[in-house]
Write the structure tokens for this entry.
Amino acid sequence: MANVVVIGTQWGDEGKGKVVDLLTEKADCVVRFQGGNNAGHTLVVNNQKYIFHLIPSGILHQGKTCLIGNGVVIDPGVLIEEMDRLQEHGFAVTPENLVVSRYAHIIMPYHRALDMAREKRKGRTKIGTTGRGIGPCYEDKVSRSGIRVHDLLDPKSFSEKLHRNLEEKNFLLRHFFEEEPLDPAAIEDEYLAYGERLAPFAGNVSEFLHNADREGKNLLFEGAQGTHLDIDHGTYPFVTSSNTVAGNACCGAGIGPTRIHKVFGVVKAYTTRVGCGPFPTELLDDTGIRIREIGGEFGATTGRPRRCGWLDMVVVNTAIRLNGLSGLVITKLDVLTGIPVLNIATAYQCGPGQRETVPPELEAMEACKPVLEEFPGWGEDIRRVRRFADLPHNTKNYLRAIEERARMPLAIISVGPARDETIILRDPFENS
Ligand code: GDP
Ligand code: IMO
Ligand code: MG
């Protein structure tokens, strides 16, 4: 038995969805614990592509329970649409395979409106959010005025909270942002209908997981975003509004730290970032464009082109520290095929000195230049390779360099988007 957390080590889109889908085979429960539909997790199963924003990436497997923890912010319209789309593809989503925490906060239309109005007003200094209302929803949670799943199930309480909140939000929208105010009656009708639809799925995720854990079941926790988008530890303010690090699996699902046995960090074989903020190894040349085209680096949520750059071990090593990683999963290695010379950043040159971890302040990070080490590339197609030994010599060298600089064993190597395009070296649910 093992309980495993999977998180992103960079700025998101590392391939967490593929990895979680793959590991679900040996898990019993798959749990989202933070973020919302700012996430876009892509799975390719039987040549069919699925993108999940809220439903955990284990949902395509039979006989597993997917759970959305209290730490997630839920846009109910998006969740219901995702359930319907799965149904259309022949995957039933029922209270037997999906449980939604009664304590998760709900994203309201005014959260989306405020998110977009703020970005518009910031202009050049904007964060580049996904516009999904994530920040404003977490703000209300922390200011103790949020609306939770259980409120949707109680029309009287919901109506009271909605009107109280909307009074303040409409004032802001109208008088500060000079945007259109929102109509409470329309929101009330829409959201109470969502409540009716979601009522059978609402439950106590913490209790469910506690019981499953006691029965010796394997729990798999699916992180969203990436370590450097963490509200505390990321490149603030160019971050998301939740803690994306592994420690939050406990708070966001309602379990204790002694119940986590392994933490796997997903590392894309290069680096990408969507939205604004520092990115020391960014490539603004033809190689960056090539990686974007071959890697399909366009946002799964907003369709925005992702910024691309070399692998940055300063970023990865900082993630190893912040998450207490026990293993690394390398993804999208195949995308680097055909690039004659590859680079890895091993340190940052910051003024006269070098450093091997990300500086905590934005200004310091912006002043850093990456120290790059060159590696010869490979031309062979690696997507059919299933054993480490069968990889080309230069690919093995590149992987060993990562392992050495991370001082951490590689557990899984992904060489394509499909489930089976994978080399497994260490299975987190075995050897526990
Ligand atoms: P997530 O947000 O971390 O789940 O990652 P995304 O789904 O946003 O982005 C990862 C993209 O890369 C998706 O389109 C995946 O299908 C794809 N992908 C995952 N692993 C691999 C891989 O090893 N090779 C290639 N070529 N694509 C991959
Ligand atoms: P997954 O789970 C990549 C980024 C946004 C923006 C910043 C803040 O698919 O890896 P927000 O809407 O959260 O307030 O935006 O965070 N961002 C992501 N970037 N992958 C994600 O999720 C992201 N979720 C948010 O682009 O820079
Ligand atoms: Mg994504």
